[in-house]
């Protein structure tokens, strides 16, 4: 299977313990997070050779990030550590305990970060260029495009360089807070230059002005496939030749929604790299996302290979009857109905 390079920013992540308001917190949980590195870890867990390329500060946060990714089997030889600029930081603020509708929010402290200084010059770093030349897939996201002009120029350089058979995937990953002072029109250009675009219906509206399937295909005519995610409903592959494949989402007992989008991307892309058809790749994305929805962290482990294969190959009726809950999968496709 070809290797994958995931290019973007990874940050230190802090969040109050005990689900208390940030202003009242006395303890903060310390972890790491980044869309592209989450995808890299998901791919590595599925047996794909995955590398994360980006920049951190030469500080405790940056050292922690490299150690965390390496412990998950992700290559970090293409990471640059800045001697002056700091590693980016974000704080996840939990939703109010007494609110039935409020959602957790995020505070970003990434302006002037080491990653915001990424530019086309980083692509000429021998450690980075060798990884890119050997990759079968380069994975990008819209988050990077919002960080700085240099970051946007870097993505443009990746997308306009000769492909030599490699593919480029682009996850829109809309972040409202990052685009308030930046022209979002660049997202359409970057997406249209990519081979695979992943976008949620909720993201497509602010990013592209529409989530209508026909209009999206007209806006992105050069993209080989657009994967349109309808949250808990379905995922749809819209091919350039007019083909359309829709796969319903699995029934899931959700424990924590964080990381499901990145898990879907890792599952779908791993299926594509394995030579699976669109239906099987979408199913793999759904199952990967479902397993992440049932754990408190950003990544949930996939079932064993035999179980995974049987679920991916099951009938539409058995797929509709499959339920994923914390620690178990119940499906008519499995002997005894569970795994």
Structural summary, described in words:
It is built from 12 helices and 17 strands. The chain has helices at about 35-45, 60-70, 125-135, 140-145, 150-160, 185-190, 200-210, 215-220, 260-275, 280-295, 305-310, 315-320; strands spanning about 5, 10-15, 30-35, 50-55, 55, 80, 90-95, 105-110, 135-140, 165-170, 195-200, 225-230, 235-240, 245-250, 250, 325, 330. The strands form 4 sheets. Strands 4-1-9-10-11-12-13-14 form an 8-stranded mixed β-sheet, with helices on both faces. Strands 3-2-7-8 form a 4-stranded mixed β-sheet. Strand 10, helix 6 (about 185-190) and strand 11 form a beta-alpha-beta unit. The longest helix has 16 residues, at about 280-295. The radius of gyration is 19 Å and the shape is globular. The model has no long low-confidence stretch (mean pLDDT about 90).
């Amino acid at each position: 299977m070809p290797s994958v390079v995931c290019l973007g920013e990874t940050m230190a992540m802090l969040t109050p313990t005990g689900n208390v308001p940030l202003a009242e917190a006395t303890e903060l949980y310390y972890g790491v997070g980044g869309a592209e590195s989450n995808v890299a870890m998901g791919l590595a867990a599925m047996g794909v050779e995955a590398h994360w390329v980006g920049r951190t500060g030469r500080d405790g946060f940056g050292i922690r990030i490299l150690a965390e990714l390496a412990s998950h089997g992700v290559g970090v030889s293409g990471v640059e550590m800045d001697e002056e600029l700091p590693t980016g930081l974000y704080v996840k603020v939990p939703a109010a305990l007494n609110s039935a509708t409020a959602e957790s929010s995020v505070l970003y402290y990434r302006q002037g970060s080491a990653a915001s200084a990424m530019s086309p010059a980083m692509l000429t770093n021998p450690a980075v260029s060798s990884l890119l030349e050997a990759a079968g897939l380069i994975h990008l996201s819209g988050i990077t495009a919002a960080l700085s002009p240099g970051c946007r120029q870097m993505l443009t350089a990746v997308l306009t360089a000769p492909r030599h058979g490699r593919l480029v995937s682009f996850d829109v990953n809309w972040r409202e807070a990052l685009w308030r002072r930046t022209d979002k029109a660049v997202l359409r250009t970057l997406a249209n230059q990519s081979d695979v675009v992943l976008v949620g219906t909720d993201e497509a509206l602010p990013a592209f002005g529409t989530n209508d399937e026909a209009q999206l295909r007209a806006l992105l005519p050069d993209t080989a496939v657009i994967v349109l995610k309808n949250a808990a409903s379905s995922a749809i592959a819209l091919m350039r030749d007019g083909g359309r494949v829709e796969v319903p989402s699995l029934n899931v007992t959700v424990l924590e929604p964080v990381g499901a989008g990145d898990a879907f991307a890792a599952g779908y892309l791993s299926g594509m790299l394995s030579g699976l058809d669109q239906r099987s790749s979408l199913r793999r994305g759904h199952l990967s996302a479902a397993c992440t929805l049932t754990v408190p962290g950003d990544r949930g482990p996939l079932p064993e290979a035999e179980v995974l294969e049987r679920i991916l190959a099951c009938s539409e009726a058995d797929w509709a009857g499959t339920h994923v809950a914390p620690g178990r999968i119940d499906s008519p496709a499995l002997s005894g109905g569970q795994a």
